[in-house]
């Protein structure tokens, strides 16, 4: 209600969003754009009380995760989404983590062994549906 106060007589604070939630909001806004857009466009599109610097910070983090692209050094800098939603962003993060590992086999083996049977069945189904030669399909080692 309007005029509410906390125990110390202060107005209640707005709920603080997690970084992932803000990233998802920014990705959603960029997903609506048909061309690369400036930060101000994203800020207005969110319709929230987010500062310009907060939106820049989120876009920069998304750029580091390769979830968005940005134009070169010219002004204004324009941004465009590569990832579509939180699932894409999580998948990008997982690939980035895997790419940093020296022993991919061990990482993937550990990951798969920790899956529930339902998740394991889903993963097996997704890999089968991808078919041979698709980016998601496993590749066979050449005969020596």
TrEMBL record:
Its protein name is: Transcriptional regulator
GO molecular-function term, one example from the UniProt record:
DNA binding
Q: What species is given as this protein's source?
A: Streptomyces niveus
Bias class Basic and acidic residues marks the residues at 1-10
Question: Which UniProt keywords are listed?
Answer: DNA-binding, Transcription, Transcription regulation
Identify the Pfam families for this entry: Penicillinase_R (PF03965)
Tell me which family the UniProt entry assigns to this protein. Answer: Belongs to the BlaI transcriptional regulatory family.
Keyword Transcription regulation assigned: yes
In residue numbers, the region (Disordered) covers 1-21, 125-144
Keyword Phosphoprotein listed? The answer is: no
List the GO biological process terms. negative regulation of DNA-templated transcription
Membrane-spanning segments: none
